[in-house]
Amino acid sequence: ASDVYKRQFRFYAIEIEERKCYLITGATIKVHKDMQKAPNTKIEKEKLEYALNELTENKVDTKELFIDFIL
Fold first, then answer.
1. 10 Å Cβ neighbour count for 52?
2. In this predicted structure, what is the pLDDT of residue 52?
3. Top-confidence residue, 36 or 68
4. Which residues, 6+ apart, have CB-to-CB distance to 66 below 8 Å?
5. What pLDDT shows up at residue 30?
6. Are 61 and 16 a contacting pair, CB within 8 Å?
7. First CA to last CA across the chain, in angstroms?
8. pLDDT digits (tens, 9 = 90+) for 6-57
9. Among 34, 61, 65, 67, whose Cα sits 20 to 30 Å from the Cα of 19?
10. Biggest alpha carbon distance in the chain?
11. Rounded to an integer, what distance in angstroms lies between the CA atom of residue 28 and that of residue 41?
């Protein structure tokens, strides 16, 4: 077994409309085996949760509504 750990690029996104529209709220480079312990993971999850709450409260669930919401 190798001690070398593969680094991965991870996107945090919300699917607004199935297979049509995604809101990317952030990204990280995975360098820890346990990403839950990485400080930036908490920040990315908080941003994701905030964005999801805003979309839910404003009933944004289609690509068209999302475009209207951000403009």
1. 13
2. 96
3. 68
4. 16, 17, 21, 23, 55, 60
5. 73
6. yes
7. 51
8. 677 889 999 999 888 999 999 887 776 666 667 788 888 899 999 999 999 9
9. 34
10. 52
11. 8
Q: What distances in angstroms separate CA 51 from CA 22, 34, 38, 43, one per listed residue? A: 12, 24, 21, 12
Pairing of strands 21-30, 8-17: antiparallel
| Residues 36, 44: Cα–Cα separation, whole Å | 11
9 Cβ contact partners less than 8 Å away, ≥ 6 residues apart: 27, 28, 29, 30
**What is this structure's pTM?**
0.75
Distance in angstroms (rounded) separating the CA atoms of residues 25 and 47: 6
SS3 labels along the chain = CCCCCCCEEEEEEEEEECCCEEEEEEEEEECCCCHHHCHHHHHHHHHHHHHHHHHHHCCCCCHHHHHHHHC
- How many angstroms separate the CA atoms of 21 and 5, rounded? 32
